[in-house]
Amino acid sequence: MTIQWFPGHMTKARRQIEEKLKLIDVVIELLDARVPLSSRNPMIDEILRNKPRLVVLNKSDMADPQTTAEWVAYFAEQGLDALPIDSSSGYQVKEIIPRCKKLMAAKIESQIRKGINPRAIRALIVGIPNVGKSTLINRLAGKKIAATGDKPGVTKAQQWVKVGTEMELLDTPGILWPKFEDQTVGLRLAATGAIKDEILHIDEVAFHVVRYLVEHYGDALRERYSLEALPDDVSEPDEVVKVMEAIGRRRGCVVSGGRIDLDKTSTLILRELRTNMLGRISMERPK
Ligand code: G4P
């Protein structure tokens, strides 16, 4: 899904989330485990203010487990509990309720002390398009509630969805915009498929991916495409292009005269990255 974000849309999306915040106890901030910061809204702290928040790293099935663990530590340092999950299979989704309860522990205890019976925790899922909000809502609800592809600005009656007896979830997620200003963010989101390929040049995205893979996942790259030595230094663009050409040659992406078809090679690399043919890869690491 592609959404054209204009300033008016951002203001409207923000206002819609702020309206929903009044109704809820806890925010579930959904990020892509492969690119947690790039899939994060730049104004999130300002929008959520002091609402208790659980960071959920979705699509962890596709991310490098070691890097995901580093991200969990990174968020912990910032005082945020981060939970890696996989909404498609349901992995760790059940852990969301106890984690939210933990965030609400002080409030729940004080209610009990006052003799008030604590009600179910009310939660809202927020995140950028394609991060898996609808998949997670459906998974938590145990049935199809959210149509994948909700559009920002489209209003419909909101309903609470019961998640067991201890949590209620708003059936429409809060849709946020990503950080566009930074070109690397755009390339990372495109690499994971969060941004449509037509928006950026495919060869530019693949170039970024190959350079990153040479630096961080050299063995996986060599093995997948039966490559010989990889360059030690990828600061020279030519060195990266040579690797792309070697991949293209291996895979028969050749046009007349034996020239390598870089567009075709780029499409192939991105398809294989996004379907985990190169293994579980994280495209971003904590600094
Ligand atoms: P959104 O509401 O935030 O826009 O995202 P949505 O749930 O529509 O999910 C976007 C895509 O991400 C979907 O794939 C969905 O299946 C996939 N997805 C969601 N969560 C996970 C996860 O934890 N792991 C993996 N591997 N994929 C996930 P799609 O190609 O658009 O549709 P389809 O493959 O479901 O047909």
From TrEMBL:
UniProt-listed Gene3D superfamilies: 1.10.1580.10, P-loop containing nucleotide triphosphate hydrolases
GO CC entries: cytoplasm
Sequence positions that bind GTP: N58, K59, S60, D61, N130, V131, G132, K133, S134, T135, G174
Role noted for this protein: Required for a late step of 50S ribosomal subunit assembly. Has GTPase activity.
GO biological process: ribosome biogenesis; translation
Species of origin: Paenibacillus contaminans
Name of the protein in question: Ribosome biogenesis GTPase A
InterPro entries: G_CP_dom, GTP-bd, GTP-bd_ortho_bundle_sf, GTP-bd_ribosome_bgen, GTPase_MTG1, P-loop_NTPase
A GO molecular-function descriptor: RNA binding
Family: Belongs to the TRAFAC class YlqF/YawG GTPase family. MTG1 subfamily.
SUPFAM superfamilies given in the database record: P-loop containing nucleoside triphosphate hydrolases
Domain CP-type G: 14-178
Pfam families listed in its UniProt record: MMR_HSR1
Keywords, comma-separated and alphabetical: Cytoplasm, GTP-binding, Hydrolase, Nucleotide-binding, Ribosome biogenesis, RNA-binding
Underlying gene: ylqF
Entry's localization field: Cytoplasm
Domain of life of the native organism: Bacteria
